[in-house]
Amino acid sequence: MAASNPLDALSKPTVWHEFSPLANASNAVNLGQGFPNWDPAPFVVTSMVDSVQTPGTSTNQYCRPNCHLPLANALADEYNGRPSWSHLNVDPMTNVMSSLGCTQVMYCAFRALLQPGDEVVLLEPAFDIYGSQVILMGGVPKFVSLKTDLTAPPTSNDVFTFDFDALEASISEKTRVLVLNTPHNPTGKMFSREELERISSIVSNYPNLVVFSDEVYEHIVFDPEGSPHISFATLPNMFERTLTMSSAGKTFSTTGWKVGWAIGPDDLIKKMTDLQQWVNFSSPSVTQDTIARCLKRAREPYEEFPTFYDWLAADYKKRRGVLEAALTSAGISPISPQGGFFICADTSRLTFPDSVYEEESLSAPSPMPRDWALARYMTHTNPKVAVIPPSPFYSPENVDQAKNYVRFAFCKTDDLLEEAQLRLATIDPTGDLEKK
Ligand code: PMP
C-alpha cells in the first residue's frame, strides 16, 4: 500500500480562511489579522529604491544560497553589537542563513534535521505553522501546554507559565527539536531568564536536541528593564545547539517582503544552506539588500527616539494602551502582553446565543469550541470587531484551554483602533452580546 501523503491532512481551510472573509462580509473592524495596515517607514521604502537602483551592485542578480553578503554582514554586526551576544562572535560567512521569512527559515531547518518519526516539542498555544511543518516532514509534534491562570495578575507573563515537569516529561531520546517563541504569539509572554535557564538545564541532557528560538517580535517589547528580550542562544553553552530565527516583517512593517534569517552554529547553518540551494537556490537579493540597509539605519535616531527600535516599541506600546483601555471598559479583561502585537483577553463574562454553535464553519473543529463561536459572533453581529479564536493554536486534546479568551491584534492604524473602541463601547454592561 502506498504511504499516505502528510499534505492530505493539511489540505483544508484554516482559521485564516474563515475569519478574513467573515470580517469583510460583515463590515467588521478587523483586529484579527496579524500584520500592520500601514506603510513601512520612509527610510525603509527609500532603502528599497536605493537597493534596486545602485549601479554596479549585484542586488538584481542571484545571491549566495546561504545569504546575500551585505545582509550576512549587517546581521553579524547587529547580533555581535548586542551586549548579550558579544561573547559569541557571529561569523557572517558561516553562522548566518536567510530565506523567505522566518517561516521558510524554519521549513529549511526542519527539513534539514528531521527524519520521519522524529519528535518535536512545541509549547502551546503555538503558532500554527510549527505543527503543520513538522507533520509535513513526517515528524511527530509533542505538545506541552503553558499553564493558563486567568485569575493571575493581568500580564501575559503571569497568566501563562511553564509546567517544567510536563516539559521534561515530553522530551526523550526521540526528541530532535524543541521550538521556543519569545515574545510569544498569541499570548505576548516574554520568557524570563529563570525560565530559559530551566529549559537549558533540561535540554542539556539531550545532546542531539536542537532548539529553534523564534524571535520575530524581538523589537516589539514593552518593559525592557523588567521583562527584557533574551535570546536562548546567549545562555551558557546554548549557541551550539540553537537556531535563532527572526525576520524583518514585524520590525520594519514589511511582512510581504518575507526576509527572514537564522543565526546558529556552522554545522546547522550549513545543513539549511545545502537544503536551500536545492529548493530555490537563493532568496531574493534585493529585499535582503534593503534589509541590510535598514538594519544599519535602525540603530540611528528616529523621530526623537535614540533608535528606530525605541520608536517602534513606544509606538506599539501606545497602541496597546488604546486597545487595553477599550477592552477594559467593555468588560473584556486584557491579559497585558509584554511583547508582540497581540492582546489575549478574558471573555468569560460574555454571553451570546447558542445558535452560533450550529453555524456552518469552514474550519472549526467539531464540536465548535466556545472561543470560536464567540469570535464568530463578535465578528459578524456584535460588536462587529473581528478577532481570532486561540483554539487553532492548541492540539485537539487541549482546545478547551482556549475557551475563555480571544486574540486581538493592535498592529492597526489609529482610525481602526478608534472605531474598534467605539464598537466595543456598545457592549452591554451585563456582557450579554445579544443586548444592544
Ligand atoms: N513566527 C511567529 C511567532 C509569527 O507570529 C509569525 C507571523 N505571524 C511568523 C513566525 C512568520 O514570520 P515571517 O513572516 O517572517 O515568515
TrEMBL record:
GO cellular component: cytoplasm
InterPro entries xrefs: Aminotransferase_I/II_large, Kynurenine-oxoglutarate_AT, PyrdxlP-dep_Trfase, PyrdxlP-dep_Trfase_major, PyrdxlP-dep_Trfase_small
GO terms for MF: kynurenine-oxoglutarate transaminase activity; pyridoxal phosphate binding
Keywords from the named record: Aminotransferase, Pyridoxal phosphate, Transferase
Residues of the signal peptide: none
Cofactor(s) the protein requires to work: pyridoxal 5'-phosphate
Residue span, Aminotransferase class I/classII large domain: 28-420
Highest taxon of the lineage: Eukaryota
Gene3D superfamilies the record matches: Aspartate Aminotransferase, domain 1 (3.90.1150.10), Type I PLP-dependent aspartate aminotransferase-like (Major domain) (3.40.640.10)
Family: Belongs to the class-I pyridoxal-phosphate-dependent aminotransferase family.
Identification of the protein by name: Aminotransferase class I/classII large domain-containing protein
Organism: Triparma verrucosa
